[in-house]
Design goal:
323 residues; 9 strands; alpha/beta; Rossmann fold; 5-stranded parallel sheet
Length: 323
């Protein structure tokens, strides 16, 4: 008698859809996946409804891969629903893991975001200054849309998460590995980060490193970096010193610096603070004015250092004061 296939759910919260595309990037390995797994919920790719999941018994899904941050009430509702219906919940990708690019919204208030999107953008004509409302009365009845939250949250800040698969998007090979581990019952300890190393990217990087000192920073698109030399030694900000290895050097192999999407190293609470400390320790000057000039070469430190991890960091969000 053949073994029953795993019942799998896949869902996106606040995300770009790249994690869903990662499933297609496993190419012929999809044949191995379908031997052990059957998709029971994947609204990005198939015609599933929330009522389908609501009708499943609790614990019906063997595993759910949830990508995307928690940005609004719909994201939270579905996350809680899938947690109830799933034996294992995986935070899949940088947005579910750390907040991701959507998490950068935590540098502003919801009011600021609405003003920028619906009132102040050059292409907007909104003379009545209407912004989205959770409920709107129309002749046919009441229209309801999800409530946009003030803060972007990670999946683990919302529900109990069993495992994390990092990356933006994760290495496609990890999908087969995760499903294979569930099928075989050979699971790591709860809370494990799957598909990533405990080493820093810098330790795994093949680029040549000498004495890491620099007197200026430069933007990647304004230079032609040597593909064999450490980015930081060329004055290009690279987050490899504060980021887990395991991605297969996809950015570095394309002559782009590490962006930090695999998240902080074990026992590192704040990835942004870690990279800031690494940079500060290698600035080739002790003159305060020169140090300030060198740091001014990083045009957006917050965006660089917390590109993927602001909601997970110690900062969590910008202090808005009385705004």
């Amino acid at each position: 008698m053949s073994q029953a296939k795993l019942k799998v759910g896949v869902y996106w919260g606040a995300s770009c859809g790249g994690c869903d595309v990662a499933f297609l990037d496993i190419h012929e390995k999809i044949l191995d996946v379908i031997q052990v797994a059957e998709v029971k919920f994947w609204p990005c790719a198939m015609d599933f409804k929330y009522k389908d999941v609501e009708g499943y018994p609790d614990g019906y899904l063997d595993i759910t891969l949830f990508n995307g941050a928690i940005r609004n009430s719909e994201n939270e509702h579905v996350a809680r629903l899938l947690r109830k219906k799933s034996k294992l919940m995986v935070a899949f990708g940088a947005c579910a893991h750390m907040g991701g690019i959507p998490g950068l919204a935590n540098f502003w208030s919801k009011k600021d975001i609405f003003a920028s999107a619906y009132l102040e953008s050059p292409s907007t004509e909104n003379l009545q200054k209407i912004v989205p409302q959770v409920e709107t009365k129309v002749p046919e009845g009441t229209l309801k849309i999800p409530e946009l939250y003030e803060n972007v949250r990670t999946l683990a800040q919302t529900i109990d998460v069993d495992y994390t698969v990092p990356g933006c998007p994760p290495n496609p090979e990890q999908i087969a590995i995760v499903l294979g581990a569930v099928a075989s019952g050979k699971l790591p300890a709860k809370g494990a980060v799957v598909g990533a190393s405990d080493k820093a990217m810098c330790e795994d990087c093949p680029r040549k490193k000498k004495e890491l000192k620099f007197k200026k920073f430069q933007r990647r698109h304004l230079t032609h970096p040597d593909p064999e030399i450490c980015f930081m030694e060329q004055g290009i900000v690279c987050l490899g010193a504060a980021t887990r290895a395991g991605c297969g050097w996809r950015c570095i192999g394309s002559n782009m610096p590490c962006r930090g999407c695999y998240g902080p190293l074990p026992n590192v609470t704040d990835q942004g603070a870690k990279i800031l400390a690494a940079i500060a320790s290698h600035i080739d000057s002790e003159d305060p004015e020169e140090v300030e000039r060198i740091l001014d070469g990083i045009p957006d430190p917050a965006g660089y250092f917390y590109r993927f991890g602001l909601p997970l960091s110690l900062l969590h969000r910008r202090h808005l004061g009385d705004r």
